[in-house]
Each structure stands twice: as structure tokens, then as C-alpha cells.
Fold each of these.
Amino acid sequence: MTISVLGAGAFGTALAISLAKETPVTLWARDSAQVADMQRQRCNTARLPDVPLPARLTPTSDFSQATEAEVLLLAVPMQKLRSVLQAHRADLKGKVLVACCKGIELETGFGPIVVISQVLPAAKPALLTGPSFAADIARGLPTALTLACSDAKLGHQLQQQLTTANLRLYRTTDTSGAELGGALKNIIAIACGAVIGAGLGESARAALMTRGYAEMQRMALACGAKPETLAGLSGFGDLTLTCSSPLSRNYQLGLSIGRGDGFDPNITVEGAATARATAAKAKTMGLDMPLTETVVGLLNGDLTIATAGAQLLARPLKEE
Ligand SMILES: NC(=O)C1=CN([C@@H]2O[C@H](COP(=O)(O)OP(=O)(O)OC[C@H]3O[C@@H](n4cnc5c(N)ncnc54)[C@H](O)[C@@H]3O)[C@@H](O)[C@H]2O)C=CC1
Ligand SMILES: O=C(CO)COP(=O)(O)O
């Protein structure tokens, strides 16, 4: 079996490093200078500077070389997924495509599986998601993820093919639940970072995580997802990691909002566009998602932390 990873950011490189310890892996980046640097230094100096690339990992900027593999992992940000697929439609036709991004497309409200199916109707889409920092995977630390694929046979096969010594995959056919868990937890992580950054305390964070989980479930169940998927690695698991670790970029963005600091717009923070997409989607579906709306208000500068907190606390009292 041959594997390629498309996108040599932090996550794509980490997955390629882990998989290349067991099988040959091609890692594609669009930037030929970055590829030359990885070939020379045997390291992704920009994203994972302390981790050497295994001998069986081949960096390339030649897209057709990368698409010779049987299984392709798509590790580009969610908001870039459609354009990458469209740009390489011919090479990707009919391929097994495992999306590794976590988010909802701003313009359409769709997750990665639908985007793949729209651009490449003959492709066989799957999703790899769950609690994992690129740095942990790259360093060989133990990690458990969810492999979601509506085709149960293909999902079983991918689970076997993509499990490594440190990366244990569970499988599900509930792609909608896995997509939404991984996407929506980023919104709540921004909120948690904001609360901690503003010094509002650990109790407030626990409240946000719990009510955020209720909000995630509300949206996911309305979209036909299974509750047990939300309770699994892709939902509850990733919510826990992302809302509690300063290594999370979504949490870091929240921290900077809470502290009133600036934030580098070039850092990949999936939760920002996803919050906006989710708030719009919730409105059309008639769903109450007050935390998501609050995060959008904070991101747009329409709310301060003080007014956001006051608004949430003043909401009508209800059953849990
Ligand atoms: N970094 C992490 O710990 C984890 C990241 N993820 C997910 O993986 C996805 C990617 O995140 P990271 O790798 O961390 O981001 P990153 O910012 O480190 O890398 C993104 C990569 O995508 C490439 N890219 C962007 N637009 C492109 C285009 N149009 N064509 C080709 N390449 C393009 C960039 O050059 C960059 O190498 C996100 O959805 C994120 O949520 C998931 C789990 C863990
Ligand atoms: O998805 C992640 C952890 O599972 C990575 O989180 P960030 O994108 O917030 O860094």
C-alpha cells in the first residue's frame, strides 16, 4: 500500500512522519523551495523543527508523483480544501481521499466530506479526526483518532492501513458526526481561551465546555449525526484537548482576545471561519447556539468580553 499526504503543514508532516516509520510516504507541498529545504535538511524546519523526517518519507512538489499513491491524505486548511481539489481535479479523480482538516466551509456551510463529493463525485472520501497535536504525533507519542467513512468496507481497510505503532484509529460510518465534532470544538476552544485570557477562571471554562458540548450536540443531531460519535474521540475527546491546552491555536486565539492582545492572522485557526459558518447555518436551521454567536461577536469586535459574559449569564433560566 502506498500513501501520500497533500499539504506539508504541521499536521500533514506529522502524519507523514508517523506513517513513514512503517511504509513509504510521499509528502507534497506546493512550495518547491520548502520541498528543497525538507530534502536538504530532512526536516520541516518551519513547522516541526525538532523532528527528523524518516528515510521512507519523500517530500515532493510534483503533484502527479504524489497522486500515484493508493491513499491520499488531505492536510490543508478547511477553507482551502475546495480550491486545492478543483486545481487538481484530473489527478484526484476516483481516488481514496482522507480529509484531515477540521472545519466548516464559510461560503457553503459544508464539511470536508461534502466538499470532496461535490468537486470529485467519483472520489472515495473519508475523514481522519480526533484529539491530536501535530507535535505529539510527530514525536511518536500515543494518540487515538477517529477514521470516519460512510463505506464501511473502505473504512475498515483505511483503519488498518493508517494505524501505526503510536497512532491508534477507531472507525465509524458516521461522517457527519465526526466532521461536526472536530469542527465545532474549535469554536468552544476560542471561547475557553477568551475566558482564561480574561481571568474569568477555571469554573467558567468548565461551564463553557459543558454547555459548548450541548451546543455541538444540538447542531450535530439536527444534521443526522449519532450521539455516540459526539461522545467519542472526534467530539468530546477533541473538545477536551483543545479547550484545555495552550498548544491549541484556537485556544491561543481565544487567549489573545481575552487579554486584548493582537494575533498573527497567518496562523491556521479553523474555529474563526467555522464559527461564522456555524452561526449562519444555525440561523437557517432554527437552532439556538448562543456560545457560537458570542464567539462570532467577539471575533467581529461587536462584543467585549464583559458584555459577552453578561449576555450569556442573563439568558433565560432553563432545564439542563
Ligand atoms: N496542527 C495540529 O496539531 C492539527 C491540525 N489539524 C488540522 O489540520 C489542518 C491543517 O492544519 P495544520 O497542518 O496545522 O496547518 P498549517 O498552517 O501548519 O499548514 C497548512 C498547510 O496547508 C498549505 N496550504 C494552504 N493552502 C494551500 C493551497 N491552496 N494549496 C496547497 N497547500 C496549501 C500551507 O502551505 C501549509 O503547509 C487543519 O484543518 C487543522 O485543524 C488536525 C489535528 C491536529
Ligand atoms: O485539532 C487540534 C487538536 O486535536 C489542533 O488544535 P488547533 O488547530 O487549535 O491547534
Amino acid sequence: MTARILDGKAVGARLRAGLGERVAGLSFRPGLRVVRVGDDPASVVYVRSKDRAAKEAGFDSETILLPEDVPESELLATVRRLNADPAVDGILVQLPLPKHIDPQKVLEAVDPAKDVDGFHPVNAGRLAAGLPGLVPCTPKGVMHLLAEAGVKLSGARAVVLGRSAIVGRPMAALLLAADATVTMLHSRSRDIAEECRRAEVLVAAVGRAGIVRGDWIAPGAVVVDVGINRTAEGKLTGDVEFEAARERAGWITPVPGGVGPMTIACLLENTLEAALARRGRAELEPNGGVAEAHATPEQSYGHGPGLA
Ligand SMILES: Nc1nc(=O)c2c([nH]1)NC[C@@H]1CN(c3ccc(C(=O)N[C@@H](CCC(=O)O)C(=O)O)cc3)C=[N+]21
């Protein structure tokens, strides 16, 4: 079998076009502010893509540039100014930050209602608890791709490789909310290859080129590669041995052109959701509204025996 390609570039473009139509129908422009500190070359590229995508879809987007040696206090003051600015619906502080700045302190300074990255502990906690909130863009984008492939997640064996706060953990929470049976694998896990071979849905978010071997893929599995690694020759490559995995998988995301473009589309989706919620025009949904998690009786607190 040769896998079908889950084309994040195309799906992301469609999602952005739909958001553009919704924004065009509003009496205001949702405001996005991306803060970039210093000139990390990857950050320069990513932040430019975000700004361009936002403007194309009709958002009021501005990038705020601060010097590499900006004091932490000044970055925090910038975030507070954006929190207080009514024209601003979404705030994103691009990571990584210079070493003299504590990223956690900065992420926690962002108003959770404007936290379009979904990185504030309030939003992370709400996702973990199955409550409405802003959901991190990359795992949200993965859920869109799985929906696009028509994957039935309820009861499916899903494996998430990697337990980062920005991808692995929220990814597992979203899959669980969609009623998948979720296994998280990480640096201390045993029998990783065997665990992966049991996966009907495999999400790789480690950040090591080719760490997922082709023979770890179950026949017909849906393989989502979140890794973005740069080879010695400067080419982008994922965490999955793409060519070998493609021979076994049912669906697979390429790198580039897979999850990356979905991340940017979901940033715009979150900004629109935050803008509507802040104006009382819509409620935030559990799981970013991507996966329709249906609370089964045994999941409700205190209702008799059963697995939760
Ligand atoms: N506060 C914060 N939020 C983020 O969401 C965030 C961040 N910091 N820091 C860095 C990572 C990385 N990230 C990507 C977004 C788009 C692509 C993307 O569109 N990639 C293209 C290729 C881009 C290229 O050619 O370099 C693709 O995969 O096809 C990749 C990576 C967001 N991040």
C-alpha cells in the first residue's frame, strides 16, 4: 500500500479562505499581535508567514519587534500593554526567547482570553479538564487534518510520541476528548517500536529527524509528522522516515507541507474565536470545536462505576 498524502498546505489554505470570508462579514477586524524578540532566522521566517497569512485573511495584524537584549521587564510591559488594548484580540510571543528571559513568566503574563497560542496554564488546564478555552495551534491543526482524512477517532488506538507542553500533551488531550485510546510515549518509555506498531493513529512530535522508522508503522495507519528538522544540507525533514513509512501507512503528512501550514491557519482560527468570544458573540468551545467530544455517562463526575 502507498499512503495517501494529507496535504496540510491545501487544507490550511482552505481553512484560511473560510476564515477570510467570515472576517469579511464582520463589522470589525480581529486584531493579532505577534511579538518577536531578536533575529533568530527561523523565527523571522515563521513570524513573517503568520503576519502575511493574517493580513491576507483580513485580520488587523502587526508584528512587534524587540531587540535581542531587551530586558525581561520590558517584554512583560509590552505584553501588558497588549492585554489592555481593546483592538487586540490575540497575542503571540514567538518562541524561543533569548536565554536571559524566562519564557514561562512571559506566557503567564498573556491574558488567557487573548492567548491564541493556548500556552497559558489556564488554557492548558481547561483543555486537560475538557473545558472550553483556546487550544494550541499545532495539535488543533492535526485534529483538522485527521477530520479531513475521515479518521474515526472514537475507540481508535492513538499514540503520541513526545510530551512537550506545546504539542504532545495538548495533542493527547484532544485525542482523548475525541474518545481515542491514547498512549503517550517519551524518552523514558520502553518498547517504543512495539507501541508504535499498535497505533492506528501515530503523531510524532519529538524533533529528531527520522526517529520513527518505516517498520514502526502499522499497515494502513494514519501518520502525522509534527517534527520540523533541518538537515545538514538545509532541507526540512520530519521525525518520520517518510519514504519507508509511506509504503505502509494509509495516510501520511509530508514535511514540509503537512502540519506546519495548519499551525498558521489555526492561529488565525484562534484569533477569530478569541475576537468573537471577547465580544460575547460566541462561546469558546471545548477542544477548540474541532473534535466533537461527547461526554459519555461514565465520564461525568460521580456517576457510578465505569472507566473514565
Ligand atoms: N509562540 C509560538 N507559537 C508557535 O506556534 C511557534 C513558536 N512560538 N515558535 C516556533 C514554532 C514553529 N512554528 C511553525 C509554524 C509554521 C510552520 C510552517 O508553516 N512550516 C512550513 C515550512 C516553512 C519553511 O519552509 O521553513 C511547512 O511545514 O510546510 C512551521 C513551524 C510555530 N511555532
Amino acid sequence: MTAHSRLANPPTPTVVVGVLALQGGFAEHINLVRRAAAHLQSAAHVQAVEVRTPAELDRCDALIIPGGESTTISLVAAQSGLLEPLRRFVKVLGKPVWGTCAGLILLSDEANATKKGGQELIGGLAVRVHRNHFGRQIESFEEGLDLPFLGDDGAVPFPGVFIRAPVVEDILSPAAPGRKGGVAVLAKLPGRLDKASPGRSQASTRDDSGDVIAVRQGNVLGMSFHPELTTDPRIHLWWLREVLHQL
Ligand SMILES: NC(=O)CC[C@H](N)C(=O)O
């Protein structure tokens, strides 16, 4: 018997959810994690913390990488000595990680470079993303999304905010029956005509059912849009429940 199990009221376990706070929408994610945690019917206490150093990352049970500018986040992560610890967190320790927009780009194994050289990625999702797929900042849009993974909570469309958003243009290792560890498509954005800019690659995962905008591979989740720029906590709540299951 452990010391804890002899106690009448064992201490509430604390789950530390880090948000990479180098650039972009980290404060917004922290707010939504806190709001979503208040809806959790779980004995666990969720603590949302900003992560800027390897020591802060070490404390985390799970991590969110926010939207922003993936090149900047990658550069600052490299300067902060965080790139290798982040890769270890995702790929060796296998802790739950969720990237939104720029975060999805950083968690992808490949990104088509818009400029020569591109940026250093963290990786973990066996996909290639196409950056800025829908065009420039002024071509940002909001669209109601059907997100089947939300189950009953998804009956009302989710406000999908797309700002210079990437799409998953190729799945390098698809999930298949009887095959472990592949990439599952969680959501698509239907009905958008390809706004091809000259020279960009064609999205090979795109078919009549739309562009791939949410994927998952084991502990790693990536989304093209910005749930953190809404007041809707449904995806954060769903993810926190998934995190608690995985721990
Ligand atoms: N809103 C965003 O996160 C945009 C991401 C941006 N396209 C990038 O390459 O980083």
C-alpha cells in the first residue's frame, strides 16, 4: 500500500498543460484551457502554464503550440535551446501535443517552403503541409466547421478561423486497418475552390470532399485553424479529456 492510498482524501492529481509562449496566440490558448478545465468532470486539476525554456517544458504533461508565425517560433525555439527538447517531448516521450495553424506546421514532418530554406520543424506528424494555402492575411476567413470528433458536442458548427492557414497536402503514412501508428484525418473543409497562387504545389489529399484541416497521429494533433481565437471552448475541452485518457 502506498502512503497515498492510506489517506482518506488522496491529493488531487495536477495535470500541467504547457503552451509554447515564444510568439503568437499563447495567451488565448491559456485562457481557453482554463475555461475548458472548469467544465471537466474529473478529479484532476489542470494547470495551464507558459513555456519558454527547456526546464518549463520538463514540468509539462501535455503541450499546445499556438498559431502565429512558424518561422519566428522555430527561430526563437532554436535560440532558446528548445528545438531538441520539443522533439524529444513529442517523439521520444510521446506526450500529448496539439498544434494550431503555425503549430500544425511545426509538428509536421514536412512543409513546403514558401521561401528558400524554410524553417526547422519539430515533426511528429507524418504529413506534408502546404503553408499559406488559402493566400494572404487579407484572404482570412471564418467558416462553420463540421467536426465529427466532437461527437454530440459538434452538433452546432464550430467557428473555424483561418488566417494564412496551412492544409495537409499529403499524408506520408496513412492510418489503415490493422496498421499501427498512421495519420488519421479528423476533419475536412469542403467546398473551397483552390485559390492557386503561381508555382504552388497542388494539394494531393484534396478531393471532392475538401481540404484536410485536422489530423492526428497517436499523441500528436494538428489543426489548420485557430480555436484559440474564438470564445468556444469545445475543442479545448475535448482535447483535455483526450489528454487525461492518455496520461
Ligand atoms: N495564422 C497562422 O498561424 C499562420 C501560419 C503561417 N502561415 C506560418 O507559416 O507560420
